């Protein structure tokens, strides 16, 4: 029952819902980060203010750094859900 196990994602309907929501957030962040880098590249080619281009790349970088944060947060949440469910099953008479 460790982290990054497929079984944690499929344990209950609640865990499936949480997994799906995190995947949606992960995809949205990935898409936004990609857009920021494409926008920064286009602005660079169009000779837009260097400061604006740098900030656009920085935003993209922060968004890309958010991706592993979302992933580990999801796995920890799913792990704790399974751990609590496991303890609850042990406590039942």
Automatic annotation (TrEMBL):
It comes from Maritimibacter dapengensis. The lineage of its organism: Bacteria, Pseudomonadati, Pseudomonadota, Alphaproteobacteria, Rhodobacterales. Residues 21-76 form the YrhK domain. InterPro entries: YrhK_domain. It comes from the Bacteria. Keywords: Membrane, Transmembrane, Transmembrane helix. Pfam families: YrhK (PF14145). This is YrhK family protein. The chain crosses the membrane at residues 24-46, 52-70.
């Amino acid at each position: 029952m460790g982290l990054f196990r497929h079984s944690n994602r499929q344990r209950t309907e609640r865990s499936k819902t949480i997994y799906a929501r995190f995947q949606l957030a992960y995809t949205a962040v990935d898409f936004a980060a990609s857009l920021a880098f494409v926008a920064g590249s286009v602005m660079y080619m169009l000779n837009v203010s260097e400061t604006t281009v740098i900030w656009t790349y920085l935003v993209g970088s922060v968004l890309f750094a958010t991706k592993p944060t979302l992933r580990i947060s999801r796995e920890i949440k799913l792990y704790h859900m399974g751990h609590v469910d496991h303890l609850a099953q042990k406590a039942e008479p």
